[in-house]
Every structure is written in C-alpha cells, then in structure tokens.
Design brief:
154 residues; mainly alpha; 6 helices; 0% strand
Length: 154
C-alpha cells in the first residue's frame, strides 16, 4: 500500500480541523474545556510537520514553496480552523479569573510551539532533501500564531 503526500496532508488536516471543531462543542468553563485546553498544545506540533515532511520526501511533489503548499493545503486548512478555535478558547479561559494560571500556560504553549516550529524547521532546512518541509514549517508558525490571536479576539 502506498500513501501519498496529499493523503498524509488530508489526514493531518482532518485531524487538526476536527480538533478545532471539537473545541466549538466544549462548554466554556467546564471540565471538558480544561481537558480540551490540556490536549490542544500537541496536535500542530506533530501533525503539520508530518504533512510537510511527507510532501518534502515525496519525489513527485514539486520542490518549490508554492508547489509544496499546493500539496499540503489540506493541512494548512485544518491548522487554520484549529488555530482560530483554540486561540478563542485559550484567550477566553485566560481571562476568566485572575487566580488561574491559564494565561501563563498559554504563553508556555506559544513558546513550545515556537521552539518546535522554528528550531525544528531550521533543522529540517539544513538538509536539501527536507528543506521544503523546513520552509513550510516556518511558514506555518506565523499562520498558527496569527490565527490564534485572531481567534482570541473573536
């Protein structure tokens, strides 16, 4: 069985988008929201780089930034939905009460994402075979962060 880079991107995009949609169903201030927030830091760290790496390692995928983006656009779509919803949830939870540490945890999550996306993308950019994945990961972090902020304002 052969799994294509587009197939990996669709899978990753569906999981990211599904996680975002799940966040829309969670009641604010509930135990479900706390669990959602605890689980929300990991999906973009694992899924988007997996899609970018699959596209970079596929010989049929174009090596240009635009060509790679055309292959992994489903992962970008899922990342966008994920970022807007989780940004809204994190921002809402961090401004609920002054006693909780949610705002600090939110900053820690942003820092972890920055390290993984920027450093991980840098490591992948060092090697010619994985360089397109590194560039896609670098492009995805501003998308993630920007839409996270936009989600916070919604």
């Amino acid at each position: 069985m052969n799994i294509s880079a587009r197939g990996v991107a669709v899978f990753c995009g569906v999981i990211l988008g599904g996680f975002g949609l799940l966040g829309l169903l969670v009641t604010p201030g509930s135990l479900g929201e706390r669990n959602f927030l605890l689980a929300s830091w990991l999906p973009p760290i694992t899924l988007f780089p997996a899609a970018a790496l699959a596209a970079a390692l596929t010989p049929e995928a174009p090596r240009s930034i635009g060509g790679q983006s055309a292959v992994i656009w489903p992962a970008y779509a899922g990342l966008m939905l994920y970022a807007i919803v989780t940004g809204h949830r994190w921002y809402g939870a961090s401004h609920g009460t002054h006693e909780n540490l949610t705002g600090l945890v939110m900053m820690l999550v942003i820092a972890v994402h920055a390290v993984v996306f920027l450093v991980g993308g840098g490591v992948l950019a060092l090697f010619s075979k994985t360089r397109p994945a590194g560039f896609q990961i670098w492009l995805a972090y501003p998308v993630l962060l920007g839409l996270w902020v936009i989600g916070g304002f919604l």
